[in-house]
Design brief:
This protein is mainly β and 890 residues long. The protein has four domains: 83 residues, Phosphorylase Kinase, domain 1, CATH 3.30.200.20; 177 residues, Transferase(Phosphotransferase) domain 1 (Transferase(Phosphotransferase), domain 1, Orthogonal Bundle), CATH 1.10.510.10; 247 residues, Neuraminidase (6 Propeller), CATH 2.120.10; 268 residues, TolB, C-terminal domain (Neuraminidase), CATH 2.120.10.30. Helix content is 14%, strand content 40%. Strands 1-2-3-4-6-5 form a six-stranded antiparallel β-sheet, with helices on one face. Strands 56, 57, 58, 59 and 60 form a five-stranded antiparallel β-sheet that branches. Strand 54 and strand 55 form a beta hairpin. Helix 3 packs antiparallel against helix 5, helix 3 runs antiparallel to helix 8 and helix 7 packs across helix 11.
């Protein structure tokens, strides 16, 4: 029964009923304490005993109460009346977007403005871990002064983390049927993943936003059938009519492309954050007129929808950059005077290429260097931010982890086991020192480069003119540190930030080191690198949220509280490197996206895909069980910066977790009888060898510990030996053998000044194939076991990741241009014969040497299980923000 006027709920006096719905009744009330009108939502007493409905109501309160944003309905109070809970909200004057749309489509400028406000509100909610999941015109309120308010987080999905665990609350409801047990959301605005009943994250809201924008621009539903079933099928299988073919022919093609990018069927192909949608809409704020349509008309000249979708990346980068070029040009011409507001646009990869690896903005904020892959080959490119064109840097083939000189003239990088530099305007690359597998460095004005020379080592210093590197930092055994990486100089050029990894999650974080002292200082706990940004901020990742916190670079102290800057920022989990960079002039670049971009797939010798295994994920190091019924694989967790081993049943594709963090657990290998799995973990400090029953029963057992990082490579077919790699600071990566009988004392198989790793026993146990850089490039070799002095080179033009066919008559490896190669081999006594390498097919893998990307099935080399990188139909761009701190002053 409705509550009568003049009734008091606590201190609030009911004036009249405003409405009613499945989640409660809404009243106009007066708050005499502060003399204002408010809105009150009351759950009817008849339903207060319904635990599910009551739980939904409480979730709405919790979700909305966590948010404080001008585009989200504000919560003032929560109380109970006669056993029924109620919530006090701000009172809004205006109407819903549904009411606005009853008169037909909206002008493009008005629709763009509303969409931008919705995107900003969603970005704030997603930043708090809240997904709306029922976004629709009925839940969008437009005030009389055209301010947008998002209503009804009653279906919100709260993601609360405690002690590293994730608890998700799913509310089973649908607007067309609110009975328990049906799918979530409102028909016509639900994302495909919601329709299928699958877990929905923040990208479901982005899909719904795209549907709403479409309706605002066309006056028609994007997905609509004569029945609920037909509408759901349309969401799953059909594309809406082109906006240019609806009643609104004046929509700018660039705006239309934003809509298509929001409503991609696959979440991975949509915008990856509401912040990025807002960026795109802001860039369009001046491009929604007829003039802009004529300006961008050539981008929409393709005759079919397919071609338009294929051109999406190039249209978006053109649209965003054109909108920003004038401001960017002004920005770069006024070196001492920053623009009044932040300016945002995107950088897309050059045509017929894809982003892969790290990128960096120059200290002067004028250029971005990034790594792309084209036709299987990686190369560095440079793009001036006040230009539409990017230029390749010749001489940077297979380069990675680029970083800048302080004068923005040179780019440093790692390639071919060397640390190199190259002038950005062109010229030959210059080698600075040996670096087996280095990460990016930091370069100060005194010509000192601080760099990690290999993935699991400490920091070294080397002259920018070249020379022998010298050790700079030392691992702290008391904190069980495993490596130091990702240095960034502070303004004085003597102190630097760096990331210290540890087998204990509480000891990982950002430290300050010095060129003049061995003393260090811990700043903050995080699982990826950090960077300093003038005038005084520390930028770092917290899970996948880019955060900023005040930082006094003179006193080396943090100030204030951290606050979010951008969401869903991508990262390299194994390298603990966030995909963001900031200049000395306030230019911030970052890339959003998902790390769940690898699919385990079966291929035949001709490269034909035969099927997939399990869902996509951040996978590497697959290893089939001896009976080939399961695969053990390492899977990164980009949210918390760890990795674990998962087992996937091939018949059902069902993954189950085998190891559990917070440590990094990687590189699984099966025992020949399939009873045990040996793997590498940093739970005790440096990566060491552990084993566990393949059934999952029992506890993990330490197999081999030492002060050097280790990783298992192979298990001999007779079960007698485990071949593993050991990283010694003096001799780099070496191959060792662990006997599993007798005194079980390890002995070296190959220990030189070069890197030898990725060792594999031949099926008869008489030979070991491995990867080495002794020739200056990665090549595959074979030696006898036990070693007798003979050595044979298998690859001819570079290679890594060797594996044997089960009969020992063929070896496989991956070439530098990412092709799977096959070589006929024959071992007889003390001699070994090597045939001519043949190309089988091209792989979609990150590159060599890399972690293991494939596994050879037992069927005479006719099937290969590959960790294949999924191709992006719409490439995720690099987001650029000029003068990023300007928004902090608003």
């Amino acid at each position: 029964m409705p509550i009568s006027p003049s009734t008091r709920l606590g201190r609030y006096e009911i004036r009249s009923q405003l409405g009613a719905g499945g989640m409660g009744e809404v009243y106009l009330a007066r708050d005499p304490k502060i003399n204002r009108d408010v809105a009150i939502k009351v759950l009817p007493a008849a339903f207060s005993s319904d635990s599910d409905r009551l739980r939904r109501f409480e979730l709405e309160v919790q979700a909305t109460g966590k948010l404080n944003h001008p585009n989200i309905l504000a919560v003032y109070d929560v109380e109970t009346h006669d056993g029924a809970p109620y919530v006090v909200y701000e009172l809004l004057e205006g109407g819903t977007l549904r009411e606005r749309l009853s008169d037909g489509l909206l002008p493009a400028r008005k629709a763009t403005d509303y969409a931008l406000q919705i995107a900003r509100g969603l970005a704030a909610a997603h930043g708090k871990g809240i997904v709306h999941r029922d976004l629709k015109p009925d839940n969008i309120f437009i005030t009389h002064d055209d301010q947008v308010k998002i209503l009804d987080f009653g279906l919100a999905k709260l993601i609360e983390r405690t002690d590293g665990s994730e608890a998700q609350t799913d509310v089973p409801t649908r607007r067309v049927n609110t009975d328990p047990g049906v799918v979530m959301g409102t028909v016509g605005y639900m994302s495909p993943e919601q329709v299928r009943g699958r877990p929905a994250d923040h990208r479901a809201d982005i899909f719904s936003l795209g549907v709403i924008i479409y309706e605002m621009l066309s006056g028609k539903r994007a997905f609509h059938g004569d029945s609920v079933v037909e509408t759901l099928n349309a969401i799953l299988k059909e594309d809406p009519t082109e906006l240019s073919a609806t009643t609104n022919r004046n929509v700018a093609p660039a705006l239309e492309r934003v809509v298509w990018h929001c409503i991609e069927k696959s979440p991975e192909r949509r915008f990856q954050s509401a912040t990025d949608v807002a960026f795109a809409l802001e860039a369009l704020s001046g491009l929604t007129s007829q003039t802009s349509e004529q300006t961008l008309a050539p981008l929409a000249s393709a005759p079919t929808r397919l071609k338009k979708r294929e051109m999406l990346a190039w249209a978006l980068v053109a649209m965003a950059t054109i909108a920003a070029l004038l401001i960017a040009a002004l920005y770069f011409r006024r070196a001492l005077e920053a623009p009044a507001a932040a300016t945002r646009f995107f950088i897309y990869p050059p045509e017929k290429t894809a982003f892969t690896g790290a990128f960096a903005v120059s200290p002067d904020g004028r250029r971005v260097v990034f790594r792309v892959i084209s036709e299987g080959k990686a190369l560095l490119w440079v793009r001036a931010l006040d230009s539409l064109a990017a230029q390749p840097l010749a001489g940077t083939e297979e380069a990675n982890f680029p970083f800048w000189s302080p004068d923005s003239r040179f780019v440093g990088f790692s390639a071919g086991g060397k640390l190199k530099k190259i002038e950005v305007t062109g010229g030959p690359a210059q080698t600075l020192c040996d670096a087996p597998d280095s990460r990016e460095g930091a370069w100060n004005r005194d010509g000192v480069i601080v760099v990690t020379l290999s993935p699991l080592s400490t920091l070294y210093r080397v002259s920018a003119a070249g020379g022998a590197p010298t050790s700079l930092t030392m691992l702290d055994a008391s904190r069980k540190e495993t490596f130091h990486a990702h240095p960034r100089f502070l303004p004085d050029g003597r102190h630097f930030l760096y990331y210290a990894n540890s087998g204990q999650s509480e000891n990982r974080g950002i430290f300050v080191g010095s060129l003049d002292s061995k003393e260090t200082k811990r700043l903050i706990s995080t699982d990826a690198h950090a960077a300093y940004s003038p005038p005084g901020y520390l930028l770092f990742l917290r899970e996948r949220m880019l955060m900023a916190q005040g930082f006094d670079a003179d006193r080396l102290e943090l100030t204030g509280e951290p606050f979010p800057v951008a969401e869903q920022v991508d990262r390299f989990t194994g390298a603990h490197l966030g995909l963001f960079s900031v200049s000395e002039t306030g230019v911030l670049v970052y890339r959003s996206g998902t790390a769940e971009n690898v699919q385990l797939a079966w291929f035949d010798r001709g490269g034909k895909q035969l099927g997939t295994v399990g869902p996509p994920g951040a996978y590497f190091n697959p290893w089939l069980s001896p009976d080939e019924k399961r695969v053990a694989v390492t899977r990164d967790d980009p949210q918390v910066g760890t990795a674990d081993i998962w087992l996937i049943e091939l018949a059902r594709g069902t993954p189950t977790r085998f190891t559990f963090g917070p440590s990094v657990n990687i590189t699984p290998i099966w025992s020949p009888d399939g009873s045990r799995i040996v793997f590498s973990t940093n739970r005790d400090g440096p990566m060491t060898l552990y084993q566990r029953a393949a059934s999952g029963a029992g506890n993990d057992e330490a197999l081999l510990k030492s002060d050097h990082p280790k990783a298992p490579n192979d298990w001999s077919a007779d079960g007698r030996f485990i071949l593993y790699q050991d990283r010694d600071p003096k001799t780099n990566r070496d191959l060792w053998v662990l006997p599993l009988s007798g005194d079980q004392k390890p002995f070296p198989f190959l220990q030189t000044e070069f890197d030898e790793f990725q060792g594999q026993f031949s099926p008869d146990g008489k030979w070991i194939a491995y990867t080495s850089n002794e020739s200056g490039t990665w090549q595959v070799y074979v030696r006898s076991f036990p070693p007798s002095g003979g050595k044979w080179q298998v690859s001819t033009a570079g290679g890594a990741q060797p594996q044997w066919r089960r009969d020992g008559r063929e070896l496989y490896y991956i070439s530098p241009d990412r092709k799977l190669m096959a070589v006929e081999v024959k071992g007889d006594g003390s001699t070994f014969e090597v045939g001519v390498p043949k190309v089988l097919f091209e792989l979609r893998v990150p590159g060599i040497p890399g972690p293991r990307n494939y596994y050879v099935a037992a069927a005479a080399g006719r099937r290969f299980l590959v960790t294949s990188v999924l191709e992006e139909a719409t490439p995720q761009p690099i987001s650029v923000v000029l003068n990023w701190t300007a928004d902090l002053k608003r």
